[in-house]
Amino acid sequence: MPLDGDTDRSRREVLKAAVALGGASALSACLDRTADEPVPTGDPSAKPARQHAWREYIRHDDHGNSQLPSHQTLLYLTLDADGPPSADDRDALGETLDALDRAYAWSHEGLLHSIAYSPAYFERFDESLPEGIDLPEPTALSPFESPTFDRQDALLHLASDRPDALLEADRALRGERDAANGVSVPPLTDALTVDSRRTGFVGAGLPAQHQDAAGIPDSKPVPEASPLFMGFKAGFRGNQATEDYVTIDDGPFAGGTTKVVANLRQRLDDWYEEQTHEERVMEMFSPGYAAEGLVEGVGDTLGSDSGIDRFVDDLESDAREYGRVGHAQKAARANRDSAGNVRLLRRHFESTDDIGSDQQVASLHFPSLQRRVSEFEAVRRAMNGTDLTEVTPAVRQRVNNGILEYIFVRRRGNFLVPPRRHRVLPTPRPE
């Protein structure tokens, strides 16, 4: 007879697999394992005005760090006709999103969701976005990447700790069932085509359970306690922008934000097989972290703030002394405004998606929220560390230069997340 822990692990594996597969049999397996745990229904009037208002409605750890919903799905959507959306398109999408609001409570135990729109969507209109909205077309942000750009009209992001809720909503939205959580849900496909469906997971135990994907050594080195494939915690509260900070504060889209979503392939054989824990700490955070012994295990010892700001000015001296620099210390130098506020709110999660194939690979979906897309672009370019290759020959463009040797950007898209009042196929200048 299996131990309780083995039973729980088997249950989680089945539920995660169900979300990834997304079919009727997967949903049946999911519901069989959650039949005694009803999903809370929604109150549309209780939904926050900001679509990106999640922190108040999710779990937090003992240090106050946000714990993102364990299961997530991204639906990339394209309008079926040329030109601006019609009134019928707006009515259809509005009915779908309103039904989703009724079906699920706005929480990690129900369903969190947001819909965002690309620069290509707004190009359907004769008028332009307001001058204060910074939403450029996606572009390559390093000299060594050549991603495919996601230029679909819209992106619907779904997240829940309940895989049954996530999958039931997903299938209803794609027209594969009539109702979700007892509420009739008109399908998205009445107005839009689902161009791409992508899934993922985050949280202690989940990456370890799915480390049989390509890109991770056969030795199964991902710690059970790690929420991410690379073996460390991330998203410390003190190193994240607040939802208030990333919110657009004026104009017709006040209460909204911008969103960049990248998909990265991970190749972690050398990360785990050639690097010691101390060396991984050096390249994930900074050499100073390893010298001071700041990171034990997956990083619980860091509490609510990694303290990376203290090591930003050490980049060049670290490069000379240790022959390597840290990912976090490079990014942090551009991720602060003049008052010291963090600019980006990162909500990334792991995946085994290999977009365009059925192969399972270690990958990462990386949503980032910020007022202006240019802020994300500045942080990403700082992460490249191109300037540090001139300090010492030991640091090269992708070697000993943070984690660049182990991650490969495959796709990127830029989006505007409107406030809830304008979430249904907005014009560039809604009233």
UniProtKB/TrEMBL annotation:
Pfam families tied to this protein: DUF7405
Official protein name in the record: Tat pathway signal protein
